[in-house]
Fold each of these.
Amino acid sequence: MKKAIIAVLVCVNVGLLMALILGVGAPKANAYQGSLMPNNTIMMTGQIRENEDAIYIIDMATEKLAAFEFQRKGNVRSMRPMGTRDLTLDLK
C-alpha cells in the first residue's frame, strides 16, 4: 500500500514538473494595443465642481469622445450627457 501511494505521488510530481517546464497554464503575454478595455475604448474620470464629476469615454476605433456629468446631491445621483467631440484632428 505504501509503495502504491509513493508511486502515485511520484507520478503527480512528475506531471507537475512537466507542466511547469512546458508553461501549461501560464497566461500569454499581451502587448498594449491602445486600450485595456474591449472594443478599443478608454474611460476616464475628472472633477468639475465639488459634488460634480465627469466621465469621459474615448472610442479609439471611431476617434470620438463622449463626456457625461455625474452629480451627487445627498442620496440622489444623476448622470447627463455633456457632449461629444470628434478627435480625428486632435489625434493627428
Amino acid sequence: MGIFDKAKGLVGKNEDKIQDGIDKAADVADDKLGDKVGSDKIDQAADAAKSAVDKLAD
C-alpha cells in the first residue's frame, strides 16, 4: 500500500471533517481578505478544494 492509497483512505474516512475545515478556513479568509481579494474568489477556491477532496474520497 503506497502513500497515495493511505491518503485516499484517510480522506475517505474523514471527508466530512475536511469539508467542514475548508468551510471554516474560507470564512476566516473572507473575514480577513474579502475586501481585498473578493468573496467570490474565496468561494471558488473553497469549492475547488472540496471538489478535490470529493475525488480523493471516491
Amino acid sequence: MMDGKDMKPPEGKKFYGSVTVSERGQVVIPADARKDFDIGTGDKLLVFGDMQMGLWIATADVLNKYMAGSLEFFRNIESQMKKSAED
C-alpha cells in the first residue's frame, strides 16, 4: 500500500508546500524554492494567469530560456514552410 511518503514526483518537479495570501495580496515564496530558483530580495517575478489552469510565476531568466527555444522552433517551421512552397 502506498502512503504518500513513498510517492516521488516526476523528474524535475517539486512541491514546496502551501502559502497563505495576506490581506495585501502578498505571499511568501518558500525558502527552498527561492534557493532552487536563485530568487533574491528585490528580484522581479513575472505572474501569468490562465483562467482554466491557474497562475504561473516565473523569473525573467526562465522565461527568456523558454521563449528562446520557442522562437527557434517557430523559425524552423517557417523555414520549412518556405522550402515547401519553393518546391
Amino acid sequence: MSEKPQGAATQETDGFPPFPSGDPTDSFLGVEAVALDQKGRVMLPKDLREVLKHPRYGGSRRFYINVAKRGRYAAVFVFPEMEWKRRLAESGNGARLPEQLRERLVTGGEYAELDQAGRLRLTDFQIRSAQLILRGRVAVVGVQDHIEIWDEPRYAICKEEGFAE
C-alpha cells in the first residue's frame, strides 16, 4: 500500500521551502500500512525517517503528537519538533489559529522521540482517541510537513469519502 501524492507548490514562508516543493527529500509523502505493536509502538517507514535528515527538520527524532479529527474520524497527527515550533511561532503560539483548529491541535499534545529502531510510542490516550487497535494495522500517511497515523480501514473510508465531515 504505497501512494505518492502530487501537488502544486505553495508560497514560501520564513525561509522554508514551499510544500510540496517537488523535492521528495523535504516532504513526507506516501501511505504505508504497518503494525501497531502490543506496546503501542509504530515503526515509521524508512522513507519518512529519511526526510527527517533534511535541514528543514534538523535531523531531529523528536515529534509533537496529538489526536485530531479529519473528516468523521480521528487520527494521530505527528509533527517534527522543528515544524511544530515553526507553526506555533507563525500562529502567535496558537493564538491566531481558528478556535476549532487550536483546540484540535494545540490542546493535549505532547512530545515523543523515535527509539533506535525507528519506532514511535503512542500513549494509551492517543491510541484510544484515534480508535487504533493494538496488534492491528495502521496507515502511516505522509502529509507534506507532518505524518498522520490512522486505523487502516478508517483511513480507506475517509479517503473514499474525501475526508468529509
